[in-house]
């Protein structure tokens, strides 16, 4: 587990009324927390249930108002962080609200999602997409520079396996702990091994976490 989480002050402070808490009692929250603690709780039945849930949600997803906030939070993280270059994979890309922004920052972005219906609605110009299950990623060990998760579950073992020695995990919750699929920075740090340096902040009502692997540096020193 990393030593501690560094919390950076917010540059974008919340304005107006807080968003409705659609998250803390949501069935997806229970799955998110269970999987973060115990990857074996992600069974084929749970995977099928989650895929079916998001297949059904896909139709109205891109038009939903709340999606925009995730972009603001992701933008805040990207503009304040030092990130490695190379292959970037977005997990749980949905209909691509974060993918477009990631493409402005990185040369090679692959959008991955479990739900075929979500991926079908990801705009063609956003390029490479892969239907995948983040519990068993179709990437070689150490092959990915950045994994990005916007309102997505954490499969820590696979994150650690596929990230390069100096790789980074980007984590965004568009409305913080009111987001159904949410984990705190401390919980993410707890799920990762000690070589990760974990930084977190808030932007508007959202929260973000950057976990950077420092394996390369510790190997050299
Ligand atoms: C809450 S939505 C977020 C979509 C998008 N990132 C956004 O913020 O608009 C979660 C997405 O994660 C996908 N997902 C859930 N479990 C997954 C898994 N094990 N592997 C890959 N994608 C998964 C769902 O299909 C869904 O598209």
Which descriptors apply to this entry?
binds S-adenosylmethionine; 8 helices; globular; 221 residues; 8 strands
Distinct ligands:
S-adenosylmethionine
Let me know the average pLDDT. 94
For the secondary structure, the number of strands is 8
Helix content: 25-40%
- How do the strands line up in the largest sheet? 1-7-8-6-5-2-3-4
Give the second-level CATH assignment, the architecture: 3-Layer(aba) Sandwich
Strand content: 15-25%
* H-E order: EHHHEHEHEEHEHEEH
The separation of the N and C termini measures 20 Å
Gross morphology: globular
The tally of helices reads: 8
Spatial extent as radius of gyration: 16 Å
**What is the domain total for the residues?**
1
CATH homologous superfamily assignment: Vaccinia Virus protein VP39
CATH class annotation:
Alpha Beta
Topology:
Elements: E1 5-7, H1 27-37, H2 44-61, H3 67-80, E2 87-91, H4 99-105, E3 108-113, H5 116-120, E4 129-131, E5 144-150, H6 156-162, E6 163-173, H7 185-191, E7 196-203, E8 206-213, H8 215-220
Parallel strand pairs: 1-7, 2-3, 2-5, 3-4, 5-6
Antiparallel strand pairs: 6-8, 7-8
The protein binds S-adenosylmethionine.
Domain Methyltransferase type: 90-165
Pfam families: Methyltransf_11 (PF08241)
GO molecular function: S-adenosylmethionine-dependent methyltransferase activity
Task: Give a structural overview.
The structure is a single chain. The chain is of the alpha/beta class and 221 residues long. The chain has one domain (5-220): Rossmann fold (3-Layer(aba) Sandwich). The protein is built from 8 helices and 8 strands, in the order βαααβαβαββαβαββα. The chain has an 8-stranded mixed sheet, with helices on both faces. It binds S-adenosylmethionine. S-adenosylmethionine is lined by residues 50, 54, 67, 70, 91-94, 97-98, 112-115, 118, 132-135, 150-153, 181. One of its GO terms (molecular function) is S-adenosylmethionine-dependent methyltransferase activity. InterPro entries: Methyltransf_11, SAM-dependent_MTases_sf. Residues 90-165 form the Methyltransferase type domain.
């Amino acid at each position: 587990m990393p030593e501690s989480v560094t919390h950076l002050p917010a540059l974008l402070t919340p304005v107006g009324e807080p968003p409705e808490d659609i998250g803390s009692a949501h069935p997806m929250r229970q799955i998110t927390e269970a999987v973060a603690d115990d990857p074996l709780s992600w069974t084929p039945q749970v995977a099928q249930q989650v895929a079916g849930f998001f297949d059904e949600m896909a139709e109205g997803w891109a038009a939903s108002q709340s999606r925009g906030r995730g972009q603001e939070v992701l933008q805040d993280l990207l503009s304040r962080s030092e990130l490695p270059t190379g292959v970037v994979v977005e997990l749980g890309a949905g209909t691509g609200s974060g993918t477009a922004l990631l493409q402005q920052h990185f040369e090679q972005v692959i959008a991955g999602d479990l739900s075929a219906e979500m991926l079908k609605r990801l705009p063609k110009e956003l390029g490479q997409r892969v239907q995948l299950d983040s519990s068993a990623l179709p990437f070689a060990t150490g092959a990915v520079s950045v994994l990005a998760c916007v309102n997505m579950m954490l499969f820590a073992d696979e994150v650690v396996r596929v990230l390069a020695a100096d790789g980074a995990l980007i984590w965004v919750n568009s409305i913080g702990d009111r987001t159904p699929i949410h984990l705190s920075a401390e919980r993410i740090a707890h799920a990762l091994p000690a070589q990760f340096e974990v930084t977190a902040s808030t932007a508007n009502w959202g929260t973000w976490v950057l976990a950077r692997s420092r394996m390369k540096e510790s190997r050299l020193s």
